[in-house]
Amino acid sequence: MRPTGIFLNERFFVEYSLLQLFGIVGLTLPFFLWIYFVGMLILGSLLLLDRRTVLNSFREERLIAAKNMMLFENKEIFIEIIPGPGVIFQKEVQIDLPPLNYLEKGSDKTVLRLTKRADGRYSFSGKIKVKAIKLGREELRSVYVFCKSKAGLWTKISIQEMSPSSVQINPRVKKLSKEEFTEIARKNQLYIGQRLKMRGQAADQYYTTRKFQYPDSLRYIDQKRTAKFGDVMTKTFEELRNHHLIIGLDMGRTMAGDIAGSRKQDFYISAALEMAKHGIENRDTVDFFAFSQKIHMSISRARTLDPFRLLVEKARVLEPRLEESNYSLIPKMISNLTGQRSIVVLLTDLSRPSVQESLISALIPICQKHLVVAVGLIDNDFSLDTQIMRFSKSKVDDEDVSSMLYNYWLEERLKLFQKRLVQVGGASLNLSEENWMSVIERLYSGLRQSLFA
After folding, report:
1. What pLDDT is attached to residue 197?
2. How far is residue 345's CA from residue 289's CA, in Å, rounded to a whole number?
3. Which terminus of the chain has a smaller tally of CB atoms within 10 A, N or C?
4. What DSSP character marks residue 305?
5. The dihedral of CA 174, 179, 182, 186: what is its sign?
6. What is the CA radius of gyration of the chain?
7. Domain boundaries, the chain
8. What pTM value is reported for the model?
9. Looking at the domain that runs over 178-203+240-450, which CATH code has it been given?
10. Domain topology for 1-170
11. What are the backbone angles phi and psi of residue 161, rounded to the nearest 5°?
């Protein structure tokens, strides 16, 4: 925190020191002593008069920042300050932002210059450069204002409260060509399991039964239920034009930690919001649940993004728990959310062998009915491709070799997990931070299209 108040400037101390030199010389040469006394009198008078030229108040403050930024992106924040009534002696003021959590300032201080507004009033306005360094939500509520007096002897430092403005920092979106996305999908065996499962099926999926009504087709009469209820019962089908998306977010121990300087969980929350956004834009129904040893949050049958504001406003509820996740909760939760066939996207850390074993057992019954994709984020420190590229530019020691062997073992275990998941009709994606949001943006549209493959 900076100190606030009115302080003497460097210029005063320079002039005061110069007069002191005249005073010292005046001890031997009386003429300089007269200069010392006259100079001190003038400096004291100027000091009192100059203090009155410091701006005492500001009538309005306005801060305009981008509502959304991408990680590591640079942007400018527009700031305007309208001074209070009185004569304005300054042509510019300096401002500084208080300590920030998710943004980094481009410079210590920024100059706001005096300009005339369209309504005839004067204001100090300018832009301050910031860089997004972490995922999260930055609240901008105040700025430090540095006002110098007309003669430059005084500086007033004050905190000016602004109209609250928030900036949401999201993962960066890399431009991904169709060929690059196809290669990522091929490498992760995406859509293979779903296409095998959909082969020979129609675009309509059996849903439930009801009493026969003309002009229902005779071919869909359910003989067993007709005999059971004593009435002619017919099968009904859901048309897979409007889909049902279910997003599951893991909150267990494996989701703790940082990637690229940001919390790992923030990447997954951003992915959940992006998936929900695409689902709702396609007029689909979206469900959401977050779990570890129990269900911590759920959103049911959302048709707008309003319910998903909780994921940002109550982010603490989605903090990773220091406990292993119970993946056996997933089948029961999905059956409670819907009885119809749905697209299920599970966000969890797939790089852990312990997670892979538990997840396979939990997903087998779900894959029999639903379209299931498990999505995970991998740290570049555990990416074999990234490590090989790094080693090609530097010397390799024994520790590097051990690390590379461990990463190779992790990658082989992941390939085995992906193969087993494809065999039961599911799919998985393990993505780097660089490609995370770029692939997430395209994933949902690809899943919708795969239903008609």
Report:
1. 41
2. 11
3. N
4. S
5. negative
6. 33
7. 1-170, 178-203+240-450
8. 0.73
9. 3.40.50.410
10. Immunoglobulin-like (2.60.40)
11. -75, 135
Q: What is the mean pLDDT of each run of 10 residues along the chain (453 residues)?
A: 84 91 88 91 92 77 77 86 77 87 84 86 88 88 88 88 83 83 78 44 56 80 87 71 85 89 90 91 91 92 89 82 92 86 90 86 87 87 65 66 76 86 86 87 78 45
Q: What span, in angstroms and rounded, lies between the C-alpha atoms of 452 and 241?
A: 10
Residue pair 424/259 in contact (Cβ under 8 Å)? The answer is no
Q: Which residue has the tokens 């905190």?
A: 159
User: How far apart, in whole angstroms, are the C-alpha atoms of residue 247 and residue 276?
Assistant: 8
Are 80 and 52 in contact, with CB atoms under 8 Å apart? no
Residue with tokens 């406003």: 313
26: closest CA among 14, 15, 38?
38
Strand order in the sheet with 244-250: 295-302, 285-291, 244-250, 343-347, 371-378, 427-432
Single-letter code of the amino acid located at 2:
R
How high is the pLDDT of residue 196? 39
In the block, tokens 């909150």 appear at: 251
Total residues found in the chain within this entry: 453
SS3 445: helix
Q: Is the peptide bond before 215 cis (omega within 30 degrees of 0)?
A: yes
**In DSSP terms, which residues pair with 74 in a beta bridge?**
131
